[in-house]
Batch of 2 targets.
Target 1
Amino acid sequence: MTATQVIGAEGDAIERAARVLADGGLVAFPTETVYGLGADATNGAAVARLYEAKGRPSFNPLIAHVTDAAAARGLAHFDSAAERLAATFWPGPLTLVLPKVQDCPVADLATAGLDTIAVRVPSHAVAHGLIEALGRPLVAPSANRSGHVSPTTAQHVLADLGGRIALILDGGPAPMGVESTIVACLDRPVLLRPGALPRPAIERVVPLAEAPVLAEQAEADALPLAPGQLASHYATRALLRLDAHNVRAGEALLAFGAAAVTGAQLAAFSLNLSPRGDLIEAAANLFSHLRALDASGATTIAVMPIPDEGLGEAINDRLERAAAPRG
Ligand code: TXA
Ligand code: MG
């Protein structure tokens, strides 16, 4: 248990909150839509702790919150539709899903290993001030436990996440009360989630193609959808062999913990998610290790068993999705 402090978002509160974030802690804060649960987007372990606090059974990708469009361009590629939308609606309740730039500083875990990233520039003064004080992008899902409704007051956040996060910045009720509208600009603009910015307003700027909508109720199970792709969740080229207690010649090995594995010397290449068996460290390393093992050229990656508790549940969920047969 962490003692959760609720403080008014005035005076030096924002500086204090930024220090908690810089140290890898979690801070809930108001935005114009709903309260968000923030973590330093560039710190994989902080992002892992955020998933743990939310109690998400899977790693749903997160929105990176930045101070302005220039900062967003450091994370994502903008096509002309995205540029028009950003110029018209930022700062404000619009999230854009865009191709991630190479060397994007946001932790792989925050985008669940995807090649796309959701970015948003909130208009709320407290949110803006917090991102500015941290000096880095802030990932922030709605500040509720997974499966619960989004919080619009500091008291809602406390009821849901009290004891699980360090700090709640109380800036009064979130003015809009519904989440941001999400539009993907990957080839053509597609509405992924209806939200606080109404569709007709968007359609006055760019035409919107029809697409499956991310139902917020089904959020934990929702796969991020991109036009022309069935499920764009991270998949390896190599096959994954889960729950492996041994390594076969030529396989790459994704290890976990200190336990020895039979035939480890046969592995063409191996990486350990967390030699000390820490699930937070393992989550932070998951997608980058999978990518590196995949890039080694091995046709199969043997994955040692990972305990199905705490964040292990989400790690196993992602591994199972990546291992599922694809057509
Ligand atoms: O108003 C909001 O957007 C609030 C405030 C705190 O900013 N945040 C919020 O975040 O609603 P969250 O994590 O509760 O919802 C983000 C949604 C999820 O459904 C996630 O799947 C989707 O955005 N998403 C994030 N990255 C994505 C991506 N690369 N592709 C498709 N969907 C993505
Ligand atoms: Mg949410």
Target 2
Amino acid sequence: MEKSGRVEPIRNVEQHVMERQRAYHPNATGEFSWLLSGITLATKVIADHVRRAGLRDILGGTGAVNVQGELVQQLDVIANETILACLGYRGNVGIMASEEDDEPHIIKDFDDHSKYIILFDPLDGSSNIDVNVSIGTIFAILQRRPEIEAGQVMDHILQPGFRQVAAGYVVYSSSTVLAYTTGDGVHMFTLDPSIGAYRLSRENVRMPAKGDTYSINEAYRAQFPDGIQAYLDWTKTKEAGRSLRYVGSLVADFHRTLLRGGVFIYPPTKKAPDGKLRLLYEANPLAFIAEQAGGAATDGRQRILEKTPKALHERTPLVIGSKADVDRVLSFWKS
Ligand code: AHM
Ligand code: MG
């Protein structure tokens, strides 16, 4: 766009998506950017709640336990309802499924216009809500499979991660940052609170090929597979020269790993033999972003994006980050 000389053009998420679609998918209908604008709207509302949480009476638990067996925080519920409300009325969403809900929501019977499936973790890192530590929202977008009958809801949802048409996350932190990919790179935006728009801050983000941090809840060490324990021993050697960083919010730990390099690991434990993190709305979207930025993601046996999900709330071990660091973990953890 031509500059007027005084006012810089503002590139917000919606404009960015439209520009890239025009360049790479000239037949696109604009439906996708309309969908994404539902996500940006919802996450702006959530960011506002997060920022004012101590001023409004919305901190603390609801007293309920979710399908994952975890305590539900009031902000979890608000975030969940906000996303459902903002996206449910877009008209092009058929199914939505959330970490917080047992069953998927059938928003609209599939037709030519309601082709999208949204899977999301409305507020990741909930245990950090009350103590002002970074939390986030993660989302994955799939399309209905035309070869499958509309009523087979779970078959539409249980698609391997390589079929995601888009994925992203928002981290609510010192600033609110949104990252998304549609399979042509990873792009990052910062919420400008003065105008209420996500402004482009980094285009085509690349994850460093290697980093010097590892990120894992080392308190569970005795429960980890031997190979992970051997890797942890190596990190303490002079040759390794590694540092440990662990926020305990996946989005925040991933965001740092994406920008600085290194590796995030949530291995199987004796208590959680399949790992803790959820495949469909935590591991898959972040794996898509990691790969698009030049990184890697595995469960120790196979690429996360190639796993065939069997259940909506399925868990998976996760090793994600810079390619060299993921390979290093695997060289110790030959499962
Ligand atoms: P949540 O989605 O209920 O918040 O749980 C997932 C969180 C991740 O953000 C984080 O990586 C992990 O749980 C931390 O688990 P732990 O406390 O076992 O280290
Ligand atoms: Mg989560």
